Structure formats: structure tokens, C-alpha cells
Amino acid sequence: MAAATVRLFLLLLPLCLSLTIVSATATVPVPELIRETCMHAKSHHDLCVAVLSSDPKSNTSDVRGLLEIALKLTTENLTKTADFVADFLDEADKKSTEPGLQQCLAYCEDEYIDAVDQLTNAAAALESKVYKDVEKWVAVAMADVKACQQECRDIPGDKRGLTKKNGDVDRLCSITLTINQILL
């Protein structure tokens, strides 16, 4: 009888431990400031929470710190998309791809180069606590991304997720602007 009880215990122990671990990780609360800040993001609320929560510094940040995190992650995403566009254009040029796609990608490359510069300016404005300028530079970067999207919208064929990447950057810019708005 004791051996059966020990076997049952040993069989159930890993299950109990794994449920405890899952339970503990599933109930980690979102810090109140992140939750309150992201309420302003309305349609992007869940993305806002996910983005801000992805940086461990967000747990101890004030609103300005959350803005810094959002701007940093937006800049990283935008820079990766700029690199993607440049690589895609190089490949399209080598393959003599359809001219409309090459034109779209060349246009987007210029827009993304400009957008990276705008977010660099926004970071400098944030460092100086000039939130009106943060708003201006992020809005200009967002307009650059939308211009890319507009230029390429009628191009048929495989754009390798460029539309989605543009949308992702646009949403991140929107979240950054929303957080900045709290500080204005």
C-alpha cells in the first residue's frame, strides 16, 4: 500500500509542479502604469501592453520611461524594416523584377531612410524633454511609412510581407504618439 502511494505521489508530483509554474507565469500582473497608459492606445491596447511589457525596465518606469521604451522599440522595428526594404530592392534589382515593384521598393527605401532620421530626431527631442518635437518627428516618420504603403498598394505579386511590416511600424508609431500625448 505504501509503495503504491509513493508511486502515485511521484507520478503526480511533476504534474503539480508544472501546473504551479504555469499558474505562476500566467498570473503575472501587468504593472498599473502600463495598463493605464495603454488604455489611451484604444485600438492598439493589447499591442501597447505587449510592447511595453517586453522591456523589463517598464516595470519601474514612469510615463516618460515608457515613452522612451516605446520609441526605442519603434525605432528598432522601423530600422529592421528599412533593412528589409533595402535587401529586397537589391534582390529585385539583380533579378530584374517587374519595374513597378522596383519603383515601389526604391520609393520605400527613400521613405524609410527618412523615417529612421526622423526617429533619431525624436529620440534627441525626448532626451531634451521637448515633447512637441517628439510628436512632430514621430508623426513625420509615420507619414513616411504611410507614403511607402500608398506607393506600393497597387503593385501585384509577392511583396514579402511589406504591407504587414508597414502596418506594424505604423501601429508602433501610433502607440508612441499616444504615450507622448500624455506628456504634452
From TrEMBL:
Keywords: Disulfide bond, Signal. Residues 29-179 form the Pectinesterase inhibitor domain. GO terms for molecular function: enzyme inhibitor activity. The lineage of its organism: Eukaryota, Viridiplantae, Streptophyta, Embryophyta, Tracheophyta. Belongs to the PMEI family. Coiled coil: none annotated. The keyword Signal applies. The keyword Signal applies. This is Putative Pectinesterase inhibitor. Pfam families: PMEI (PF04043). Residues 1-18 form the signal peptide.
